[in-house]
Amino acid sequence: MRNVPVPLGERSYAIKIAPGLLAQLGAECATLRLGSRCAIISDRNVAKPYARAAEKSLRAAGFDPVLITVPAGETAKSLRVVGACYDQLAAHRLERKSFIVALGGGVVGDLAGFVAATYLRGIPFVQAPTTLLAQVDSSVGGKVGVNLKAGKNLVGAFHQPRLVLCDLNTLATLPPREFRAGIAEIIKYGIIYDAELFRRLEHDMEKLLARDVETLAAVIARSCEIKADVVGQDETESGLRAILNFGHTIGHAIENISGYGKYLHGEAIAIGQVAAAKISAELTGLPANDMVRITELFRRAGLPTHINLSAAQRKRLFAAMKLDKKVAAGEIKFVLARRLGEVIWGQSVPDAVIERALVHSAFRIPRSAF
Ligand SMILES: NC(=O)c1ccc[n+]([C@@H]2O[C@H](COP(=O)([O-])OP(=O)(O)OC[C@H]3O[C@@H](n4cnc5c(N)ncnc54)[C@H](O)[C@@H]3O)[C@@H](O)[C@H]2O)c1
Ligand SMILES: [Zn+2]
Questions:
Q1: Is-contact 205 302, C-beta < 8 A?
Q2: Rounded distance, CA 331 to CA 312, Å?
Q3: How far apart are CA 62 and CA 340, in angstroms?
């Protein structure tokens, strides 16, 4: 088993990564001095194959779990579903020391985490992420929340889990498209922080796509370490944490203008990262060869690397970027790469440069790159 510590003072916790960990859920929770009542919040796709194992393991360790199932998909991240969860927690008489287990992808993690952050002014929770994206990204860092009609993640809190348990076996049932979307975040960690991880992904991409357990364990653990390291230095997002948004300014805008659902988040940020790499080659000295390697790695992961936009769509994309909540005083700030493994944040980028990065044919790969 791999164990990644997340050092956050009193709120420190561990991320445990191994195949078959759901069977250990109860035993692991038993080490945390929690009350006996608990709730597993899961979605229908995940509850069916995995809730029973989680319940059984909790019962065997002396806990009294109730299963709360929510609909699958982003729409479950709503205040209406939050309200329905509160009612069930109250009906099952969960109290201050009781805890919640989030069993599912990022949607369930964000929702259940928000419920845990607010029910009785906050009760403990444990993450049992079942998508690749949730295992390398959303379950680490303590951001929880739900959507409003006006936009995504507009209501939320910082609430750290007491434990994150990544059972690699759950990834076996993840649809291929969802799996590839998670790889986009792993590649991001390589670009922003760790050229060695990037090289490893170049070397092992086929094994990763085949969901080889040893490869998964290694890259998930490294990704969690990087996220934990970044979050540990900047828990509330005042500076460094911004680097986790590499490729996200354009990515979010793509999700936004194409209607949520056309592109998965991981697909949109794959396009966004390739565009950010092109901008970096122009503005921050990213070597052309690194830009080519970045584009190529996304392609090998089966992710999109560019988007064809009409002039009108590009206009909408710019408008969407300027609405992004991370925009300060109307100016879009980018995270740009200097070389693989090293980025700088807070970079202003002229519109014309963004535009060039988005027009596929405007960027010819220089011969010197080969
Ligand atoms: N809190 C954060 O820091 C953070 C970071 C990144 C993303 N997010 C949030 O995460 C959410 C996206 O998470 P996601 O990509 O995991 O999506 P998701 O939770 O919607 O899961 C994707 C789909 O896969 C299904 N699924 C989950 N696990 C499965 C399994 N093991 N086998 C078969 N099917 C399975 C789900 O039911 C769903 O249909 C977004 O709401 C996003 O805002 C949060
Ligand atoms: Zn992301």
A1: no
A2: 21
A3: 48
The pLDDT tens digits for 64-81 are 999 999 999 999 999 999
Q: Which residue has the tokens 């997002």?
A: 237
Which of 193, 215, 196 is CA-nearest to residue 204? 215
- pLDDT by residue (tens digit) across 35-68? 999 999 999 999 999 999 999 999 999 999 999 9
What is the DSSP annotation of 215-274?
Answer: HHHHHHHHHHHHHHHHHHH-TT-SSGGGGGGTTHHHHHHHHHHT-TTSS-HHHHHHHHHH
Compute the distance from residue 17 Cα to the ligand 1 centre, in Å. Answer: 18
Determine if ligand 1 sits within 6 Å of the CB of residue 73: yes
* 170 Cβ contact partners less than 8 Å away, ≥ 6 residues apart: 22, 46, 49, 50, 130
Three-state secondary structure call for residue 367: helix
Q: Is 237 in the pocket of ligand 1 (CB under 6 A)?
A: no
46 lines ligand 1 (CB under 6 A): yes
Structure tokens given for 219: 């890259």
Q: How confident is the model at residue 127 (pLDDT cuts 50, 70, 90)?
A: very high
Closest C-alpha to ligand 1, atom 20: 73
pLDDT value at residue 260 = 64
**pLDDT score for 203:** 98
Residue 367: pLDDT above 50? no
Please give the model's pTM, rounded to 2 decimal places.
0.94
Mutate to test the pocket of ligand 1, among 40, 45, 152, 267 (most ligand atoms within 8 A of CB): 45
Q: Mutation test of ligand 1: which of 107, 169, 241, 267 has the most ligand atoms closer than 8 Å to its C-beta?
A: 107
Greater confidence (215 vs 237) lies with 215
